Amino acid sequence: MNCSAQFAVPGAIERRLDSHGLPEIRLRHASGASARILEYGAHAVSWIDAAGHERFFMSRASWFERGKPVRGGIPVVFPQFCDNGPLPRHGFARIHDWTLVDAGTTGAGGVFAALELSDSAATRAIWPHAFKTRLQFVLDTGFAVEWTIANMGQRPFVFHNALHTYFQIRDIRRAAVRGLQGADLIQADAGYGAAGREIRFDSEIDRVFPGAPDAISLVDEAAKDGLHIARQGMADVLVWNPWIDKARRMEDFGDDEFVRMVCVETGNIAAAIELAPGRAWAGLTRYRIPGP
Length: 292
Ligand code: TA6
Description:
Helix content is 4%, strand content 45%. It is globular, with a radius of gyration of 18 Å. By secondary structure, the protein is mainly beta. The N and C termini lie far apart (37 Å). Bound molecules: 6-O-phosphono-beta-D-tagatofuranose. Residues 69, 75, 82, 89-90, 164, 188, 206, 238, 240, 263, 265 line the site of 6-O-phosphono-beta-D-tagatofuranose.
C-alpha cells in the first residue's frame, strides 16, 4: 500500500506501511541492493547489498512502537549521547516521527530519501532550542548517510550526535575492527589506553575512540566478509557489544544475539559540537562492501 505517491519512483522508491504499521521508505538500486527506512526515528532498519546479504542486525525482540527505540539498523542519536544529560538516553531524535521531504535518484545513479526533523513543542519542552536536522540516505553499491543539523534559533546550542549502527556478523568471537590504531581509548567501563592494530572481542566492549582515523573496517572472519566505514565531520568511533550478561538484561534483545552483531558507531561523542545561531553542521558516514 502506498501512503503517498508523491515521492514514488516505480521500482526504485516506494513509501508504504511496514509489517508493524509504521510508514517506511523502500529504496531499490539497479545493482539489486535495497534499503528500508522508517519515518519513525528516520531509522534505517535494513540494507541488503547487491549480493543479497542483509548488512544490518535487527533484534528479533526489537520494539516497533512509538516512544521506544528500535533495536538494530541505525538508531539516530541526537542531541545527547547515552545518559550524558537530562534527555531520554541517546536523545529524542530516534523516538520522534521525521518527515520525508525528498526522494529520487542521484546524478551518480544512486537512489536517495531525505527526512527532516525540526523542533516542536515536545522537543522544546525538554531541549529549549530551535533546530532543523536532515538525514539523506543514499543507496548505490554501498550505503551512505548524509546529515545536517542547523541552529534555527537566536541562541547557540551544543549537541552530541551519532549513527549507532548495528552490523550483522557471523560470529563476534571471530570478528575485528581495524584501523583504529593510534586513536585514544575511552573505555566506558575502564580506564584509558591506546588502541592496537585491531579490536577483537572476548567480553563486553563499550569504547569510544576519539579522533579515530577516517577510514576503518569491520572484519567478519567466520563469514569471510567485512565492510569499510568512511566518515567526514564525525570525529569519533564507538565500538559496542553487550556480551552475555548485558544481553540477558536487555528486554528487547535476545540472550544469544550478542554473537551475531556489533555496533560500530560514528559521531561526535567525546566532544560536543557548538552551533551559533544560523549556523549548520554537516557530516556523513559511508558504508562500502570491499570489491571482488
Ligand atoms: O553506544 C553504546 C551504548 O551507549 C551502550 O552503553 C548501550 O547502552 C547502547 O548504547 C545501547 O543503548 P540503548 O539506549 O539503545 O539501549
